Amino acid sequence: MFHKSALASLAAVATISIAMPLAAAQKNGAIAQDFKLTDMYGKTVQLSDFRGKTVVMEWHNPGCPFVVKHYDSGNMQATQAAARKQDVVWLTINSGAKGKQGHMNGPEAQKLVKQQDMSASHYLLDAKGIVGKAYAAKTTPHMYIVDGSGKLVYQGGIDNKPTANKADIKGARNHVTAALNELKAGKQISVAQSRPYGCSVKYAS
Amino acid sequence: MTSNSSLPTIWSAQNIRTALQTFFVAIFFAALLSISPARAQIGPDKRELNVVATLVAESQQVQAGQSVTLAFVMTPKPTWHGYWENPGDAGIGMSFDWNLPDGVTAGKAQYPVPDTLLISGIMNYIYKGDYAVLVNLVVSERVKPGPLPISVKSEWLACTDEVCVPERDELSINLQVVGPDAAVSLNNAFNDYREALPRQLGSAATFMVKDDLFRLSIPFPENIDVESPYFFIKEDGIVDYAAPQKVNRDGDRLIIETAARGDELQNISGVLKIGPKMGLSLKASAGDVEMSGVPIGGGSSGNFIGGGDQSSASLLFIALGGAIVGGLLLNLMPCVFPILSLKAISLAKAGGEEGIVRRDALAYTAGVVVVATALGALLLALRASGAAVGWAFQLQDPRIIFVLLALVTAIGLNLAGLFELPNINIGNKLADKDGPAGSFWTGALAAFVATPCTGPFMAAALGATIVLPPIAALIIFAGLGVGLALPFLLIAFVPAIRDRLPKPGAWLDSFRKAMAIPMFLTSIGLIWLLGRQIGEDGLALSLIFLLLVALILWWFGGGQIKGLSRGMVTTGALIAAVMGGIMFLPDEEAMETQRAATASAATLPSEPFSEARLSELRAANQPVFAYFTADWCITCKANEAAAVQRQETADAFAAANVAVLMGDWTRPDPAISKFLEKHGRAGVPLYLYYAPGEEPVILPQILTVGTLTDLVT
C-alpha cells in the first residue's frame, strides 16, 4: 500500500518535471514535492520518510569550482556536521547527467564521500535530473530546507559571497546555518530566499 | 630511491627525501620556465585564462577635473563565454576591487548588450565573442600632474556549455595626469566598445507582477522595426529567466510577458534587446500593464513563443481582406481614376465581344498583380537588407518621381487631346486596338501610380506584412493588386454590369478630356513632392525639362493632325529629355542636405551636430541650442512636437540669433555617445543651451515652449 503511493508520487514528480521542466519551481511555505531517489549504496530514500525532522537538500557536483571552494575549505562539511548535530537530515543530491561534468555512480560517490569526509546523511543520485528539475535546482551548490511539517522554508545559495574564492567564506553569512538556527529557536527565517550561485546543474538536456 | 647507496651516510633518510624533492621541484620549475616563460611571468598561482581580460584606457593622458574611460577587453577562447552583470539562472557577473590613487573614483561598469544561452532549461546571459566592459574614472581637480597608477583586482566566471572556471586577474595601467593645455590622444577602438553598449531609453517603462506573470510595458515608437526583442532584467528574483518571453506590439508600446518568480519591487531596470547588436537600457516602475496589441512573431532563437499558426493565419486573412478592400479603394484615387475610367471605356468599346473583354481584363489584372507583388518583393528585400523603407518607398527616390511626373503629365496631355498615341506597346496605350499586352501594361502602370495613394485600409494590411513571413507578405501585396483590378474583373465577367455601362458615343470625348484634370492634379502633387526632395533650384530645372517634354508631345500631336509621322523622332527626343532631366537632378549629398533642411524648414531649422561646429559657434560668441534625439525616443518626439518645432520657439531663437544643432542618435554614433557621456547622460533626449561665454545649461527632459523662449528673453 505504502509502496504504491510512493510510486504514484514519484510518477507525479516525473510527470510534472517532464511536462514543465523548471517551470514547477517550488514555493516557500508550500509542502515540498515528495520524491524517491537511490543513494550511493543503491538504497531507496524518500523525502516524506523524514517527516518530523528538518531536511536540508544540497545540490552537488564535485567538479564545480564553487563546490570545491566549500569542500576544500571544509566549510560544507562543517555546515553538514553542525546540522546533523541538531538532528537535521542532510541530503546531498547529484543531478549531473551521465557523461557530464560531476556525474557520479554509487562506488565513485562512496569514494568521494570518504575522501572528503562528507557528513551528509545520504548521497543521492539523480542522473536523470527529475528531482533537480522538479525543485528547479539551477546551480551547484543550490540549497533547500524543508521543515518538520514538510514545508519548504528556504531556497537559495549557501552564503552571500558569490565567488569561488575560499578567502571569502570568512565574513560571509551562511544562509543555511542561520536558517537552521532560526528554525530551532522557533523564529521566522530572516533570509528565506537568496540567489543561488555556482555552476549550472549539468542536466541531461 | 635507487641512488640511496651513493649518498653520504651522514644524511638521514628524511634529509635525503627533502633534498631530492627540492631538486625535482627545482628541475620541474626550470623546465616550466624554459618551456613557457610567459606562464612563469604571471606567477605560479595563475593559470592560463579561458576568458582573458586586458585593461585599456581610452587615453594615456588625463586632465585633472576630467574623466577617462577604461575598458576591460574580454577575449573568450573559442567555445567559452563570459557573463552579463545579471548572469541569469547560473553563473556570476564580474567584480572589481579597485586600487586607485587619491582623488580618483571609478564609476559603475557598463556592459554591452548580452546574448541568451539556454542549456537544459537553465538560462544564461552571456557574451560568446570578444566584448568590452567600460568603466569611467573621474580624476578630481586637485590631482597634481604626474603618473597615475591604476590597478584593479577583478573576478569573473568563464564557462563553456559544459564546465565553468572562476577566473581572476590583477590588472594595472599607468596613466599620466597632464596640464589642461596638453594634447590628449584617444584610442579609436573605444568607438566600437561604446557602440556595443545599450543606449538609454529616454522614457520610463511600467511593470507589473501578478498571478505568477511578469508584464512590462515599454514606450517604443510604432514605426521602428524590432527583431525578436528580449528583455534582460538586472534585478534577480523577479522573473523566471528560462521562461519564454511573449512580446506584443500595441501602437507606441512594446509589451513583454513572461513568468514571474517572486519578490515584488517598486523599481526594476534592464536592457531591451531589439537587434543583433542593439539594445536600449531602461528603468521601469510598478503599475498596471495589460497584454494588448499584436504579438510579434517569435524568431529562430527558440526563446519566444510565436503567435502560433492559428493567430498567424487569422492575421493573414484579416490583412488580406484589408489589402483587397484597400486596393479597391485605390480605384477612386485621383492618380488612378483616369487610367481606370479609360480602361473601363475601352472595355465598353469592345462591345459584345465577350472573349476579348475577358482576355483584356485578365491581362490587366495580371499587370496590376505582377507590379504590386514585385514592388512588395522589392520592399521586403530592402527591409531585409536593413533599409528603413515603407510602402511607396519608390517615391523617396526623386528620379522615380521625375519619371512618374513626366508620365502622368504626358497621360494628362494625351487625355486632353494634345496628341494621340500610335499603336506602340508601352504603358499608357489607351487608344484603339487595345491588345492584351496593352492591357497588361495599363495594369502595371495603374499599380505603380497607385502606390502613393495608400489608403487607410492598406495601412493595417501593409503593417501586417512586417510581422508576417515573406510568403504571406507577398500574398498580401498580391491581394492589393487583386483589389485594384477587381472592378475590371467584375465588368468583364458579369455581363449585367457591363450592360449598365454607357455606350460609347460623342460624350466619351468630353469625358476623356475631363479626365485630364485629375491627371494634372496628380502632376501638381508630384511636383510638390519633388520640390520637397530636391529643393527649388533643382525643381525649376526639372520643370524646364517637363516643359520640353510637353513641347515635344505638342509638336508630335501637331504632326498627327497634318498626317505626318514623327514617332521615331519624338520617342528619341522624349527619352533624351527624360534622361537629361534625371542627370540634372541633384546628387545624393545635395538631396540629403535638402532633406535635412526641409525637415526642419517648417519650423526650427537646424544643422547637424558636431563638436567642431559647436566650438566654432561658441568661438564666434553665438548662442547655441543643441539637442539630441532619436527616432525611437518617444520623449524626444513629444518634446519636438510640443516645444522645439514650434513657431514661437523658432521666432524667439531667430530674434536672438541662436544657432541650432541637432544630433540624431537613431543609428549608433560614437561621437554623439561620447558627447552625451561627457554630460552625464547615456541617452537621449538631451537639451543644452550655450549662452555666449558661459557654461552650458542642461535643460529639463520635458520641455515647454516657455522653457525655450525664456532662454533668450
Automatic annotation (TrEMBL), chain A:
UniProt keyword annotations, A-Z: Signal
Pfam families, per database record: AhpC-TSA
Gene3D superfamilies: Glutaredoxin (3.40.30.10)
Signal peptide annotation: 1-19
InterPro entries for this protein: AhpC/TSA, PRX-like1, Thioredoxin-like_sf, Thioredoxin_domain
Entry superkingdom: Bacteria
Domain Thioredoxin: 26-181
PANTHER family: OS07G0260300 PROTEIN, THIOREDOXIN-DEPENDENT PEROXIREDOXIN
Name of the protein: Thioredoxin family protein
UniProt organism field: Parasphingorhabdus litoris
From TrEMBL, chain B:
PROSITE patterns from the UniProt entry: THIOREDOXIN_2
Subcellular location: Cell membrane
CDD domains, alphabetized: DsbDgamma
Residues annotated as transmembrane: 315-340, 361-380, 400-419, 440-465, 471-494, 514-532, 538-556, 568-585
Top-level taxon in the UniProt lineage: Bacteria
Start and end residues of each Thioredoxin domain: 593-713
UniProt keyword annotation of Transmembrane present: yes
Protein name: Thioredoxin family protein
Originating species: Parasphingorhabdus litoris
